[in-house]
Amino acid sequence: MKKSIEKITYCFVIIAALFVSFVSFVEPLVMKDINITKVILVLLCYAAVFAGSLTLFRRLSERTLYYLTIAGIFAAVIVQTYIVFHMRLVPEVDLNHIYDYCVDMVETGKISFGESKYFAYNTNNIPLAIVIYYVFRMAAFTGMDYRIAAGLFNVLLILVMYVSAFLILKKVTTIRTTAVYMALLLTNPSFYAYASYYYTDTISAGLVMAAVCFIIYGCYKKKNHWKMIHFLAAGFLIGFATCIRVTSIFIVLAVGVWILLNKYWKKLLTLGIPLVCGLLIFQLAWGGVYRYHVDMDTYDSAITIEHFLMMGSHGNGTYSVKDMRFTRSFPTHEEKVENNKKVYLEHLRENGVLGNLKLAIKKEAIVWGIGTHGYTQYTKNVVEKTTCYDWLVGKKSGLFRTYMQAYNIVLYVLILSGVCCTFRKKKTDKYSWILAIYWCGALVFYIFWEAHPRQSVSILPLLTMLAVPWIERSCIVRD
């Protein structure tokens, strides 16, 4: 039964990777925002460089690869820091409200979010706003520009993500495989496109990767007290990440499902209890911080879960101003829930079985298949339009956007190759199975939730690890 479930999971992921690869390829033909011929040319160039890197990495010593990877990480962070200084973002959408209110709080000495109608409704963004408030306070203390300080904080979390990924792979596989994976991750353009956009995606990704790193290293510790410390730290970080972005909990749920399927009851206790304790420690600490800054009752005013389901059940399943106004029109929580649920079920009935299936496919294509991840929507407004802005967002950004789409095709083809390699193995690969469960969970989630191309950015670091089995096979040094 366990083996059958494992194979079914991999089959589901293989189908998903095939689908996303196809969607990524045809996206330029459908959207007509970039030239398909140029995408193919950039794809071939990237594939040639990547293949050349594989050949080179087979020949270099492990010590050289180690230092080369470290140099690559710092080179990426230097480029992202350059982007932050030369693209001082005037944020759009939700981050706009967060920026304006946090600046006002720092400059007026206010500590409460209670006066804001935006936060009374969008309570899910209060944790991020609190974090940004303290970043701005530090910026004010040092005399640094708020926009630059927030961007540097974002780059710091991206650095944490890179380093954590490096440490994880270095622990569970060879340095050659790690170097190739890091080359793939470091050339992912999404983390450059969003370098100056200090929102939940990149911030939570850094925290999640650090938490996974603690779990992996904790599992390798022989002494119980060191295991306990690592798992507590992981739980604390997962709690923080989930507070910032709720989908951060997916990796913990995937590990839990894997443990239950394998009936590893001892692991459930030795890992689960300290992890939950870490989560509780964070909640206790965060509860005090939250109450200090939020002195309003948001029960009736807050957005509901059913609202996001309702938005995701019609049209393209994306954000709708009309739906937002509809939800806000009801004064109590119970009325919001009741009417959101009513409209949601009406949409499902109107769509019918075929309509709901088409909508689900469309939403998955939006979340995973658009290589640009919708970054221009959030980074189009800056204090000054520099050369850096022109190449990333402005009039000369065509090449960068072409590269983003080409990279997305390569990434999912490599993920497909990695999962196929794992599928053919007779022996269970526990890490690949956990990651396959992780992606299955995310795929199912976005069948129902509001869809946006940006939603997949926070999942990419762990998702890229599904390509590791193929990389391991390709990195074997033959005499």
Written overview of the protein:
- This protein starts with a helix and ends in a 5-residue tail after the last helix.
- Helices cover 76% and strands 0% of the residues.
- With 479 residues, the protein is mainly alpha-helical.
- The model has no long low-confidence stretch (mean pLDDT 93).
- The longest helix has 37 residues, at 333-369.
- It has one domain (1-475).
- It has 22 helices and no strands.
- The relative contact order is 0.15.
Distance between the termini: 40 Å
Number of helices: 22
Q: What does the radius of gyration come to? A: 22 Å
N-to-C SSE series?
A: HHHHHHHHHHHHHHHHHHHHHH
Largest sheet: none
What is the helix fraction of residues, given as a range?
over 70%
Task: Compute the average pLDDT.
Answer: 93
Tertiary shape: globular
| Beta fraction | under 5%
User: Structurally, how many domains make up the residues?
Assistant: 1
List unreliable stretches of 5+ residues.
Answer: none
Return the structural class: mainly alpha
Number of separate strands: 0
Defining traits:
single chain; 479 residues; mainly alpha; 0% strand; globular; cell membrane; pentosyltransferase activity; transmembrane; transmembrane helix; LipidA_mod_glycosyltrf_83
Element layout with pairings:
Layout: H1 2-31, H2 36-59, H3 62-86, H4 93-108, H5 117-121, H6 126-142, H7 146-172, H8 175-186, H9 190-193, H10 200-220, H11 224-244, H12 250-262, H13 265-293, H14 305-311, H15 321-328, H16 333-369, H17 375-379, H18 387-392, H19 398-424, H20 430-448, H21 460-464, H22 468-474
Helix pairs in contact: 1-16, 1-19, 1-20, 2-8, 2-19, 3-7, 3-8, 4-6, 6-7, 7-8, 7-10, 10-11, 11-13, 12-20, 14-16, 16-20, 19-22
Transmembrane segments: 7-26, 38-57, 64-85, 118-136, 148-169, 175-195, 202-220, 232-261, 268-286, 406-424, 431-449
Membrane topology: Multi-pass membrane protein
Main location: membrane
